[in-house]
């Protein structure tokens, strides 16, 4: 069994947050809205503080930057893909291409990064930093969010 | 786990009026978290778009995800039809610098000899994941500390700037990025991880330090430095 297959098998028994209902926002027309990436790949930019254990805040990733550092704490995944091509985790150039073709209305000026390696109830994300992230994106005119992990 | 955190974020962002679609890496988690829209992609962890330097493939993943935005209600969970697997069982073939057999520990010689390859990769990609605990200049000092831990010194007395977990991540990132330059191609996922832990002096040192810490009862998360399967 490959290492990733083993991780998936182990994960099956882990507790996860369960929500009684699933919120649903009717999406705007993709060709008329900005798209943002929200990654849990724990990227940080120059000058950003590194993550502390259990941290549920986010870092802002300006769309013109590409020199982000993968500061995720997990031992159990590949980093060479990201080192070689940022788009394999943070597909910013693909979004720019789709915007140029008119498939999406635009690329958000700011994207967001969270630390995915969390083992808590995520109460800060649910009650505080998640809504703050949503406000930031809405203020930038974002209508659709693509969530990527590591 | 990223899929779990991402799923929770999807719920919160959607509640706040944003339409979301998640690339899920663990189907079982997404089945239970039930975010509004998710595309399960069985790709290597760390590569949620599947294939580096393959714009057409990445675009196909994004477009498959965006298709889910057309559904009238959620939760929606679909599978991307193509799988990509990791190559942990096939270490990268990558030449290592010869040991100098001098007064310096061979692992320090090895790390210093990889510096030019690391710099070439940094120039090529414009980014590095080294820097959680220090910078490229501190890699030899980290290895000297892990030599002490492997010899029985407690981690807090070994001179590490941080905990063993994050310190080891910097060492590993330095080596894996150097390996990218030496290999001159993008390896399959986790092939450099196996090269590092099974073939380099530094990887073997981390395994020895890990075994020493476990023997001393140090099994906390922040004392864990070797991935599952590489022990």
User: Describe the biggest sheet of chain B?
Assistant: 3 strands, parallel
Shape of chain A: globular
Q: How many strand segments of chain B?
A: 3
Integer tally of domains of chain A = 1
Strand content of chain A: 15-25%
Biggest interface, residues from each chain: A-B, 83 and 90 residues
Instruction: Please report the number of helical segments of chain A.
Output: 4
Tell me the fraction of residues in β-strands of chain B, as a range: 5-15%
Written as H for each helix and E for each strand, in order along the chain, the element string of chain B is: HEHEHEHHHHHH
Quote the average pLDDT of chain B.
95
What percentage of residues of chain A falls in helices of 4 or more residues? 25-40%
Helicity level of chain B: 40-55%
| Rg of Cα set of chain B | 21 Å
Walk me through what this model shows:
The complex is a heterodimer of chains A (150) and B (231). Chain A has 150 residues and is α/β, with parallel strands linked by helices. Chain A has one domain. Helices cover 27% and strands 19% of the residues of chain A. Chain A has 4 helices and 7 strands, in the order αββββααββαβ. Chain A has helices spanning 3-11, 80-84, 92-100, 123-139; strands at 34-39, 43-44, 58-62, 69-70, 106-107, 110-114, 142-148. In chain A, the strands form 2 sheets. In chain A, strands 1, 3, 5, 6 and 7 form a 5-stranded mixed β-sheet that branches. The longest helix of chain A is centred in the last third of the chain and has 17 residues, at 123-139. The radius of gyration of chain A is 16 Å and the shape is globular. The two termini of chain A are 20 Å apart. The mean pLDDT of chain A is 94. Chain B is mainly alpha-helical and 231 residues long. Chain B has 2 domains: 2-79, no CATH class; 106-223, no CATH class. Chain B has 9 helices and 3 strands, in the order αβαβαβαααααα. Chain B has helices spanning 2-15, 27-33, 55-67, 106-113, 115-125, 139-150, 164-183, 191-199, 201-215; strands spanning 19-24, 37-40, 76-79. Chain B has a 3-stranded parallel β-sheet, with helices on both faces. The radius of gyration of chain B is 21 Å and the shape is elongated. Chain B starts with a helix and ends in a 16-residue tail after the last helix. At the A-B interface, α1, β4, α2, α3 and α4 of A face α1, β1, α2, α3 and α7 of B. β7 of chain A pairs parallel with β1 (19-24) of chain B.
């Amino acid at each position: 069994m490959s290492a990733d297959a083993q991780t998936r098998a182990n994960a099956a028994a882990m507790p996860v947050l369960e929500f009684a209902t699933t919120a649903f926002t009717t999406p705007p027309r993709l060709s008329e809205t900005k798209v943002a990436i929200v990654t849990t790949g724990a990227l940080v930019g120059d000058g950003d503080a590194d993550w502390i254990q259990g941290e549920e805040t986010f870092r802002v990733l300006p769309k013109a930057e590409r020199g982000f550092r993968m500061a995720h704490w997990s031992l159990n995944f590949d980093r060479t893909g990201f080192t070689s091509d940022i788009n394999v985790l943070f597909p910013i150039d693909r979004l720019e291409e789709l915007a140029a073709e008119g498939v999406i209305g635009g690329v958000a000026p700011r994207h967001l990064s969270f630390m995915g390696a969390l083992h808590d109830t995520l109460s800060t994300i649910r009650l505080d930093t998640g809504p703050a992230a949503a406000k930031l994106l809405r203020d930038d005119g974002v209508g659709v969010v693509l969530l990527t992990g590591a | 786990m990223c899929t779990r955190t991402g799923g929770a974020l999807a719920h919160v962002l959607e509640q706040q009026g944003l339409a979301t679609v998640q690339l899920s890496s663990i189907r079982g988690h997404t089945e239970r978290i039930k975010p509004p829209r998710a595309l399960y992609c069985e790709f290597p962890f760390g590569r949620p778009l599947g294939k580096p330097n393959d714009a057409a493939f990445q675009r196909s993943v994004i477009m498959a995800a965006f298709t889910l935005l057309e559904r009238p209600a959620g939760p929606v969970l679909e599978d991307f039809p193509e799988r990509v697997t990791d190559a942990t069982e096939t270490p990268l073939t990558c030449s290592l610098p010869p040991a100098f057999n001098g007064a310096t520990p061979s692992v320090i010689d090895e790390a210093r000899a990889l510096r030019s390859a690391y710099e070439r990769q940094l120039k090529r990609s414009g980014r590095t994941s080294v820097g959680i605990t220090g910078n490229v200049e501190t890699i030899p000092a980290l290895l000297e500390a892990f030599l002490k831990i492997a010899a029985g010194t407690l981690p807090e007395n070994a001179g590490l700037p941080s905990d063993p977990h994050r310190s080891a991540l910097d060492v590993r990132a330095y080596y894996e990025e150097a390996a990218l330059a030496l290999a001159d191609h993008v390896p399959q996922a986790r092939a450099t991880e196996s090269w590092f832990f099974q073939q380099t002096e530094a990887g073997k040192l981390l395994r020895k330090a890990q075994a020493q810490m476990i023997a001393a009862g140090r099994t906390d998360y922040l004392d864990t430095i070797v991935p599952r399967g590489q022990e």
